[in-house]
Every structure is written in C-alpha cells, then in structure tokens.
Amino acid sequence: MNKTILTDESCDTLRILLFDIETTPNLSYTWCGKWEQNVIEFKEEGYILSFAWKFLGDKKVKSCCINDFKRNGRKRVVQKLWELFDQADVIIAHNGNQFDIKWANRAFIFYQMTPPSPYKQIDTLKEAKGKFKFNSNSLNDLGKYLKLGCKIETGGFELWKLCMAGDQKAFRKMTKYNKQDVVLLEKVYLKLRPFMTNHPKINVFDRRACPNCGSPHIIKKGIAVTGDNVYQKWLCKECGKWSTGNYSKFVSKDNRIK
Description:
The protein is α+β, with helices and mostly antiparallel strands and 258 residues long. It has helices spanning 73-87, 96-110, 124-131, 139-145, 158-164, 168-192; strands at residues 6-7, 12-13, 16-23, 27-30, 39-44, 48-55, 62-65, 90-93, 120-123, 218-226, 229-236, 242-244, 249-250. Helix 4 (139-145) packs across helix 6 (168-192) and helix 5 (158-164) crosses helix 6 (168-192).
C-alpha cells in the first residue's frame, strides 16, 4: 500500500499517526507466592485488546477493539493496526519506543505479517525525559501539569477483566478511555514539539514552510554563524519552533565576526 499524502491550504505534509494501545496481561500458573513468581506455564499470552488513533489534522479520534468483530477479533484488530502503520510517515505514542510499537511488532510477526512501510518514530515520553525536568513524565501527569487535560478513570484492572470476558459495556468504557488517551497524547505532543531537536522534517514538499509543523507562517529572525558559514534563522509564528535556512553563505576569514 502506498502512503497517502494529505493536502491542506498551506502545503503538502507527511501523514502523522498518533495512537495508543491497550493490552491484556499474561495468564500463567505459578508455584511461588504473590510477589516472587516462578512461572510454570503460560495459560495464555497477552494480546492487543483495543487501540485508538487519529492522523494529525483529522477532527475525530477513532478506535478498534476485538469486540468490533464477530470472528477472529484479535487478528483483525492487528490487521487494522498494520494498515494504519503502513499509511503513516511518522508514528507518535507515549512510551511508544518501549511499549506500543514493540507490542505492535510482536503482534504483526505473530500473525505472519511483513513489516509495514518505513516510518519515523516520536516518543513523547522520551522527549519529556530528555528535554525537561518534570516531576513525572506519565501522560496523565504531563497533561495535568501543562493544563491540557487528564486521562479518564477506569476503576482499575476490573475493567480489563470484564473486557477479557467479552462484556460489551466494559468495551464501551475501554474505548472511551482509549480515545481520551489519544486526545491527550496529541495535546502533549503539540506542546512539546517546538522543543524537539530531532523531529522529522514536515516541510519536505515546501522548503518555505516550518520544518516542524509545516506552517507557511515563518519569519526571518537574525542569523546563525557556524564556522565559516552564515545561516538565516527562522521563527514559526504557528508553533514557535526556531530553524535555520537550508542555504549558507561563505564567510571569509577577514569578515568573520570576532
């Protein structure tokens, strides 16, 4: 499947997927006590219960869970997730590098699927840890601290157990919880984005646009000097990101700033 390019009034841009998954725990037999476990045998390995997603720029968050299908729900959820990965140029998740994307890859290979087409990853948890000294880097705490909102209360693990038992009411609550996570993820991502230094360049189709968000509303703001080169500095009026021009001017030794 070829990746689809979105078009807006300003310029073409990359497809940026925000997503969040919910999984079940492993079920196993153990000999030992409650805390120190010696697993004898897995009764059932964990699987993806549901996920929610939206492409940046879309108005609505969508969801998919195993209860949406009458047959082969677990596999069909994974197939849908693979299709979305295959369409995306950039994929964003909170703790995605260590959890969501690895879980997705585990499910893909289990169902004999090939890798989706290549994409860039953005992990908002990694960005929060790397650029700031927040007291907590959880999605919920970041949302509260930055005054962006918070996650929905689930009532604890009981909701997961009810979903695993096929309870339709529980699935509706899980879907609502899952979608709110993506709503909050998008807000946190947009808030952190101007501080990101390794963000994939969004302006690949229009070098006159902001490389961070793709907005055409950028203004010249001084120059940057690196060695023998001078670069134009730009400030995006939409997202607040600073960038430098993709051209440079040679500065002779006689004209260097001292």
